[in-house]
Design a protein that fits this description.
ATP binds at residue 110. This is Protein kinase domain-containing protein. Pfam families: Pkinase. The structure is a single chain. By secondary structure, the chain is an alpha+beta fold. It has helices at 16-19, 23-58, 71-77, 122-130, 162-166, 176-196, 226-229, 236-239, 241-244, 250-255, 260-276, 293-302, 321-334, 345-351, and strands spanning 86-89, 93-99, 105-112, 140-146, 149-155, 211-213, 219-221. 39% of the residues lie in helices and 10% in strands. It has a five-stranded antiparallel beta sheet, with helices on both faces. Strand 6 and strand 7 form a beta hairpin. Helix 6 (176-196) packs antiparallel against helix 14 (345-351). The N and C termini lie far apart (116 Å). It binds adenosine-5'-triphosphate (ATP) and magnesium ion. Residues 90, 209-210, 222-223 line the site of magnesium ion.
C-alpha cells in the first residue's frame, strides 16, 4: 500500500518560523481577544433583544411613551382592589392606595370602560395627559388596562382633598394665608391647562374634591384629563349630574356650550367654598332663604354684608377684611353669566394679589340664580 506522507513518521515540524519569532503568542492573543469580544457582543445583543421582547409582552405591546404598568402587579399592590386600600369613590370610579415593588406609594384610579369602542383614542389622551407637568396639577405616572378596566397610576397625595378641610373631618385646620395660597395655586393650575399646552385643555370638573393638598398644603388639581377620556354621550355631567350640579356653569349644563369660562365658573364656586367653609349646595344659612352658596353670596353682596360669608372657624386676627371681601368679589366675577363676562384664568391670576383691579369691572348678578336655573334660559 502506498501511503502519502508529507512529513516523515514521528517528525515534528516547528511552525514558529512561519508565524515569526515571538509574534505567534501575540497573534494568538489578539485572535483570542477578537473571538472573545465578538462572542460577548453577540451575547449582549441577544440578551437585549430578549429583554425588549419580554418587556413588550409584559406590557401587552402598549408602548405609547408613558409607563405601562402590569395589571396583575397593580392588582396585587392594591390588595385585589380591596376595601382597606380604597381611598375614595367618585363618579368615574374608585381610587386605591398602592405600594409598588420599589416601596413607592401611588394612587390607582380604576375606571370602568363601558364598551370596547370607548377605548379608541385612550392611548393618545393618556399620552397627552402624561406630558402635562405643573406643580399645581396632579401627575399621571402611568397606566394599565385589562378587559373593561382602565387603571391610572397617579401621585399619592397624603393630605387628601380640600373638601375634607372645609366641611369634612379636618374642618377648621386652614388659616386665611393657607386658603389664599390654595386659591392662587388652583388658579395657576387651571391657567396652565388653558394656556401653556399646545391644545387647550378644559377641566370641566373643578370642585373641592378634585383639589388635593400636598404636605405643604400646595394644591394639586386632579382629574384634569378625565373629561377627555369619556365619550361625549357618557360624560360625567349626564351620568352623575347631581354630583357636580352646584359647580357647573349653566351654559354647559343647559346647552353643552364648552369654553375655558366653564372652568372659571367652577373656580369661582370653589373660591366661595374656600372662604366660607361651606359646600356649594349648602342651604341652611341663618335666616336666609338662599338656595345655595352662590345665591347667598350674591344676597350678601347686594346688602354689603359680604363678611358674613367668612368661615367662623378662621381666626379674625389672621386676615384683613378688605382682602377677604376682594377675594369674594373676584369669585362673584367668575360666576357671572353670560360666560363672556367672566375673566380668563390668566386675568384672575393678575387680579388676586391686586385689590384695585375690580374697579374697571361691574359685577352683574346672573339672572339664572333668581329662579330654578335648570329651566331658566336667559342666563346663558
Ligand atoms: P370625581 O369622580 O368627580 O372626580 P371625586 O373627586 O369625589 O369625584 P375621585 O376622583 O374618585 O372622586 O376621588 C375620590 C377621593 O379619593 C377624593 O375625594 C380624594 O379624597 C381621594 N383621592 C383621589 N385621588 C387621590 C390621590 N392621587 N391621592 C390621594 N387621595 C386621592
Ligand atoms: Mg376626583
Amino acid at each position: 500500500m502506498i501511503g502519502l506522507h508529507f512529513f516523515g513518521k514521528n517528525q515534528i515540524t516547528d511552525i514558529t518560523s512561519l508565524l515569526g519569532e515571538g509574534g505567534s503568542k501575540k497573534k494568538m492573543f489578539i485572535i483570542g481577544l477578537i473571538v472573545g469580544g465578538v462572542s460577548i457582543l453577540l451575547l449582549v445583543l441577544v440578551f437585549s433583544l430578549w429583554r425588549c421582547r419580554w418587556k413588550k409582552s409584559h406590557r401587552g405591546g402598549k408602548d405609547i411613551g408613558v409607563v405601562y404598568y402590569n395589571y396583575r402587579h397593580l392588582k396585587m399592590a392594591t390588595n385585589n382592589f380591596g376595601e382597606e386600600n380604597m381611598i375614595g369613590k367618585g363618579g368615574f370610579g374608585e381610587v386605591f392606595k398602592a405600594i409598588l415593588d420599589d416601596n413607592k406609594v401611588v394612587a390607582v384610579k380604576k375606571l370602568k370602560v363601558e364598551y370596547e369602542g370607548a377605548k379608541v383614542g385612550f392611548e393618545n389622551e393618556i399620552l397627552l395627559i402624561s406630558q402635562i407637568r405643573h406643580r399645581n396639577l396632579l401627575s399621571l405616572l402611568g397606566w394599565s388596562s385589562e378587559g373593561s378596566d382602565l387603571l391610572l397610576v397617579l401621585e399619592y397625595i397624603q393630605n387628601g382633598s380640600l373638601d375634607k378641610f372645609l366641611w369634612g373631618e379636618k374642618r377648621g385646620d386652614l388659616d386665611w394665608k393657607t386658603r389664599y395660597d390654595i386659591i392662587l395655586g388652583i388658579a395657576r393650575g387651571i391657567a396652565h391647562l388653558h394656556k401653556e399646552f399646545h391644545v387647550k385643555i378644559i377641566h370641566r370638573d373643578i370642585k373641592s374634591s378634585n383639589i388635593l393638598l400636598d404636605n405643604n398644603f400646595q394644591p394639586k388639581i386632579a382629574d384634569f384629563g378625565l373629561a377627555r377620556l369619556q365619550p361625549d354621550d357618557q360624560s360625567h355631567i349626564t351620568t352623575m349630574f347631581a354630583g357636580t350640579l352646584g359647580y357647573t356653569a349653566p351654559e354647559y349644563v343647559l346647552y353643552g356650550r364648552l369654553s375655558d369660562k366653564v372652568d372659571t365658573f367652577s373656580f369661582g364656586i370653589v373660591m366661595l367654598e374656600i372662604v366660607s367653609g361651606r359646600k356649594c349646595t349648602y342651604r341652611n344659612f341663618d335666616a336666609s332663604s338662599a338656595d345655595g352658596l352662590l345665591e347667598y353670596a350674591w344676597k350678601l353682596y347686594e346688602t354689603k354684608n359680604l363678611l358674613k360669608l367668612v368661615d367662623e372657624t378662621m381666626d379674625v386676627n389672621h386676615y384683613k377684611e378688605e382682602h377677604v371681601v376682594n377675594i369674594i368679589e373676584i369669585a362673584l366675577l367668575c360666576t357671572q353669566s353670560p360666560a363672556s363676562k367672566r375673566p380668563t384664568m390668566s386675568e384672575v391670576i393678575l387680579m388676586l394679589p391686586n385689590n384695585s383691579s375690580l374697579v374697571e369691572r361691574q359685577l352683574t348678578k346672573p339672572n339664572c340664580i333668581d329662579h330654578d336655573w335648570r329651566i331658566q334660559l336667559e342666563c346663558s
